[in-house]
Amino acid sequence: MSAVSPSAPATASRGVQTLRFFQRFTRAQRWEHWLLFLSFTVLFLTGVVQKYRTEAWSQQILSTPDRLELVRNIHHAAAIVLTLQVLYHLGRATYLLSKRQMSPALFPTWQDVRDAGSMIKYLLFLTNKTPKFGKYNFEQKFTYWFLFFGLGIMVVTGFVLWFPVQVTAVLPGGVVPAAKLAHSTEAIVAAIFVLIWHLYHVLVQRLNLSMFTGRLNEDDLRAYHAAEYERLTGQSADEPGGGGQA
Prior knowledge:
The chain is mainly alpha-helical. The chain has helices at 27-51, 56-61, 65-98, 110-123, 138-162, 164-168, 175-204, 210-213, 218-224, 226-233, and strands at 4-5, 9-12, 15-18, 21-23, 215-217. The strands form two sheets. It has a three-stranded antiparallel sheet. A two-stranded antiparallel sheet has the order 2-3. Strand 2 and strand 3 (15-18) form a beta hairpin. Helix 1 (27-51) packs antiparallel against helix 3 (65-98), helix 3 (65-98) packs across helix 5 (138-162) and helix 5 packs antiparallel against helix 7 (175-204).
């Protein structure tokens, strides 16, 4: 999955170093990510207006029945896009895994538990070494699976709210208010999670542009995904300047 590609040379104190780049995300994965971001943002904005329709700011937006209908139609259109994307993601991942063309790197393992324990020790100053992470660390896996199941909840409950008559023809009527509560609560929790947790890790903690470029430079790979670096290069991530000499 990962490949090395050349980059422009960078000057170092001991001469000239060639900074290599490693593929992290394919173009298809990046398009999928940004389509998810767009559809989720539209869903959240159009959904929160409807949830708080008794508030003054919401009433200004939904001041006429036509505006309310427009907001609902936009919400439903974005919901269809999100649902198709979830189905595509599941189908593609299942196919590639069955053909052994995709690494199961996002699946949780016991190593993630050990890495989390080691990271806690590092944060408590009980050790001066951080664990060597693979392609995805335990925080990134948690983000993926949290959003994966969260989106599943929102898709299912969203269709219950969209087609209440059809749903209550086969399920008890109480499923509709339960779905309404779960749908809006999960949406708000997911939005807070993305804004505080995800964006902090990719923009504040360190600027990670790999979802834009699809690549991660050698220094970042060695520093933040040392086990993956060692797997790809066959070199120790602890070697100073390892692999970068021109």
